[in-house]
Automatic annotation (TrEMBL):
This is DUF1571 domain-containing protein. The lineage of its organism: Bacteria, Pseudomonadati, Pseudomonadota, Gammaproteobacteria, Enterobacterales.
């Protein structure tokens, strides 16, 4: 099993209280409330987050990205691997993406559509459909008519998690995914590890999310340099 150091830091007082409520909810029977619904409800209450995303897939090379998100959909990706130093920013107001291949403030600057194949990975992921809310809603869509199994409590790199398996009904996929394995952190309520599978059972991607900061205050020009 792939492992990585998962360190969550929370710097917002209101969120810290809310986090305690989430932890209490996850400690109760998951039969009372679907943990994915709890996670979605929690996402709706936050305004921003920043997290290090580490992903591996058979179709693409490993990635390490510092991912920043602010509602209603601003996204910034600072790449470590591959393309070290590259920066990509999506603006939901303009619907456009700016890409600095060799670092912020350097030439050239590319203005692209989020549907441009240049900025989609081997799994076809788009920057405007990359946040936790989209992931959780995709999982919910597979749950409709599908099956959700609670595998149980597991420790992932020192963190207490709830492991779930969600598979869509036969032949159904969402964003090319038929089944998800999800590990929800019991303290934050958010996924810290997600594995996705094709209808034939082939592993599409494994993603770890670590060093998360919730309700982070970004500088005014962070998403519009």
């Amino acid at each position: 099993m792939l492992t990585t150091l998962l360190i969550f830091s929370f710097n917002d007082t209101a969120y810290a209280a809310d986090k305690a409520a989430v932890a209490a909810a996850f400690s109760q029977s998951s039969a009372m409330t679907d943990p994915i619904i709890l996670s979605l409800q929690h996402f709706e209450q936050i305004q921003s987050y920043q997290v290090t995303v580490r992903s591996r897939s058979p179709q693409d090379e490993p990635k390490i990205i510092r991912y920043s998100y602010r509602k209603p959909g601003y996204v910034r990706m600072d790449f470590t691997t591959p393309h070290s130093g590259a920066v990509l920013i999506y603006n939901p107001v303009s619907g456009k993406v700016k890409l600095w291949p060799f670092g912020l403030g350097t030439f050239p600057v590319l203005n692209l559509s989020p549907t441009d194949s240049l900025i989609q990975d081997g799994n076809g992921h788009r920057v405007d459909q990359s946040d936790l809310g989209v992931l959780l809603n995709n999982i919910r869509r597979l749950q409709h008519g599908g099956t959700t199994a609670t595998i149980g409590d597991e420790i992932v790199a020192g963190k207490s998690t709830l492991h779930l398996s969600v598979a869509g009904p036969e032949g159904k996929t969402v964003d090319a995914v038929h089944q998800y394995e999800i590990w929800l952190d019991k303290q934050s309520g958010f996924p810290i590890k997600v594995a996705s599978y094709a209808p034939d059972g082939k592993l599409l991607e494994t993603v770890f999310m670590d060093a998360m900061v919730i309700n982070i205050h970004f500088p005014s020009a962070f998403f519009a340099p």
